[in-house]
Amino acid sequence: MSMTKPMASGGTYSPQQWLSRSSLSKRLIAGLVVALAASGGLLVMISQSLSQGYVRNEQEVAAMRLVKVFEAGLHNAMLQRDLSGLERILTTLGQAPGVESALLLNAQATVRFSSRPVAMDKRENVTLHGLCLPPACVTMQPEMRWFEQKQGAALQIAYPIANQVRCFQCHGSRQAHPINGVLVVDLKPVDTAARQNPYQVLLLTGLAALLLFSSMMVWTLRREVFRPLRQLSNTANRIAEGDFSARINWSRQDELGQVGRQFDAMASRIDSIVQSLETQQRFLQQLVNAIPDPILVIGSDWRIRIANTAYCELVGQSLDQIINSCCYRTGRGLDEPCPATLVTCPVVETRQNRSLRTIVTLRQRDGSEIPCRNRCRVTVIRQ
C-alpha cells in the first residue's frame, strides 16, 4: 500500500504537510520568522498609535498656548472698544504658522470677526455644538475637535472667552452674559506620519532589537542545536549502513553532550555484539565445512541459511550465491516452491514435526540431475 501523502491542488503541499515533511531546523526557523513578524507588526501598531497620540497631544498643547496668548490682546481691544484692533488680532492669528483660520463668535454663534472676510456675520452653530457654557457648566472648558482630511488630521479649538468684571460695562453681568465670545481657531492638517517624535525612534530601536535578537537566536540554534543534531543524524546513518566504528566523540558537558556519550556507548555495544555474531558465524561455517557430507540448513521461508563446502561443490555454485537464496531455485532450478503433491518437500513435511527418509533430486548449474538419499530431522521455528 502506498504511503505517499496526497498533495494539495496545484502540486504544492499544504502548511500541515510542509511542517510534517520539513526538518526540525526549518520548522524552528519558520516559527521564529512568524514570531518575529507578529512581534514586529504589533510593535508597529503600538508605535503608530502612540505616535498619533503624541502628535495630537503636542498639537493641542500648542493650540492652547496660542489662544491664551491672543486672549489677552482680545480683552485689551474689547476694553478699548478697538474694533479695528480686534480685526487686526484675528487677521494676525489667522496668518500665524500652522493656522488655517481664526474666528471670533458671539454667544449666538454669529461670526463677529474673522481672518477670512467671507465668513463675517455667518452663523456657526455646529462650531459651538458640544461646548459646555454656563449656567449648564460651572467651569468653561475649551472644546477640541479633530477632523480627518486628505492632507492629514486637522485640529479645531473653540475657546470661550469668559466675561470679566472689567467687561461688565459693555457686556453686562456675568450671570446674564457669562462669555464675551468664543475664539475658534482652525489649524492646518498635520501629517502624523511625517512628524518626528520619540515613538518613531522607539519603533526603529525596537525593530532593530528584534532583528538582532532573531539573528542571535538563529546563530545560537544553528551552532548549539542544528549542527549537533545533523552530526548525530549522520553518525546514525553511517551505523545503519554498516559502519559500526562511527562515533560522535563530543566533549561538551550539556544535555546534548550526555546524549552523544550515551549514543557512542550504545554504538560500541552494537559493534561488540556484531563482531561477536560474526565470529560465531565464521566458527559455525568452518564447523560445517569440515563435514564431508553436504549440509544444508533451510528456513521456513525456503531460504538457505547455512550450506557447507560439500553442498556448494555438489550443486556447482559459490557460497555467496547460495546463502539467502531459495532452496528450490538453487537445488532444482525452479521459480516457485516444489509442488507438495508431486515431490516430498522437507520444509513442508518438517512443519508437521516428522522424521522422514526421502530421495531428493538436485540439479547442477549445467542442468544435470544429482539424486541424493537423505535421512533428516528438521525443526522449523515459526517467528
Walk me through the structure.
This protein is an alpha+beta fold. It folds into 3 domains: 162 residues, PAS domain (Beta-Lactamase); 87 residues, no CATH class; 87 residues, 2-Layer Sandwich (Beta-Lactamase). 48% of the residues lie in helices and 16% in strands. It is built from 11 helices and 9 strands. The strands form 3 sheets. The protein has a 5-stranded antiparallel beta sheet. Strands 6-7 form a two-stranded antiparallel ribbon. A two-stranded antiparallel sheet has the order 8-9. Strand 1 and strand 2 form a beta hairpin. Helix 2 packs antiparallel against helix 3 and helix 2 runs antiparallel to helix 6. The longest helix is centred in the N-terminal third of the chain and has 56 residues. The radius of gyration is 49 Å and the shape is rod-shaped. The two termini are 23 Å apart. 13% of the residues are buried. The N terminus and C terminus are likely disordered.
Task: Give the arrangement of secondary structure elements.
Layout: H1 15-21, H2 24-79, H3 83-94, E1 99-105, E2 111-114, H4 125-128, E3 143-149, E4 152-162, H5 168-171, E5 179-187, H6 198-240, H7 255-289, E6 296-298, E7 304-307, H8 309-315, H9 319-322, H10 327-332, H11 346-350, E8 355-363, E9 369-377
Antiparallel strand pairs: 1-2, 1-5, 3-4, 4-5, 6-7, 8-9
Helix pairs in contact: 2-3, 2-6
Count of DSSP E strands?
A: 9
**Which architecture name of the largest domain does CATH use?**
2-Layer Sandwich
Q: How many domains, as an integer? A: 3
**First CA to last CA: what distance?**
23 Å
Structural class per helix/strand content?
alpha+beta
Structure annotation, total helices: 11
**Major sheet size, sense and barrel closure:** 5 strands, antiparallel
The run of helices and strands is: HHHEEHEEHEHHEEHHHHEE
Contiguous uncertain segments of 5+ residues: 1-9, 375-383
CATH topology of the largest domain: Beta-Lactamase
So what's the overall shape? rod-shaped
CATH C-level category of the largest domain: Alpha Beta
Mean pLDDT: 77
The order of strands across the largest sheet is 2-1-5-4-3
